[in-house]
Amino acid sequence: MDAAPDAAEEAKWKKASNPDGVPTFSCDGLICTVETYKDKVKVTFAKGASLPDPAKVFNASLDAGTRRAVDIKESDTLDEDAFTALIQAAVALNRD
């Protein structure tokens, strides 16, 4: 939320197998979704393939046509500045 103060968080795609839904963050369009798994948290950027990633933060869904993801395990160290830059780039792309 610090990276995109105008972003809205909401739960989407609620269903019987996931009654809480999927947390999503939007600002003039979808920025990303966040899903939790037993061994990681997956942050999937809706238009990730179109975002600059010079720090190589994306480490999953690299062959997807549109999206890219960041899988974060408990033992990982996330480059917060680079992650913030991805979020800000996603918002800027939505506003173009």
How does this structure look, described?
- The chain is α+β, with helices and mostly antiparallel strands.
- It has one domain (8-95).
- The protein is 17% helix and 28% strand.
- The chain contains 1 helix and 5 strands; from the N terminus they run βββββα.
- The chain has one helix at residues 80-95, and strands at residues 8-12, 22-26, 30-36, 41-45, 68-72.
- A 5-stranded antiparallel β-sheet has the order 1-2-3-4-5.
- A hairpin with a 4-residue loop joins β3 and β4.
- The longest helix has 16 residues, at 80-95.
- It is globular, with a radius of gyration of 13 Å.
- The relative contact order is 0.20.
- The mean pLDDT is 94.
Structural class: alpha+beta
Total helical elements:
1
In total, how many domains does the architecture comprise? 1
Radius of gyration: 13 Å
Judging from the principal axes of the Cα atoms, what is the shape?
globular
Q: Trace the largest sheet across and list its strands.
A: 1-2-3-4-5
Order of helices and strands: EEEEEH
Number of strands: 5
Q: What's the helical proportion of residues?
A: 10-25%
Runs in which pLDDT lies below 50 for 5 or more consecutive residues are: none
Largest sheet: 5 strands, antiparallel
Instruction: Tell me, rounded to a whole number, the average pLDDT.
Output: 94
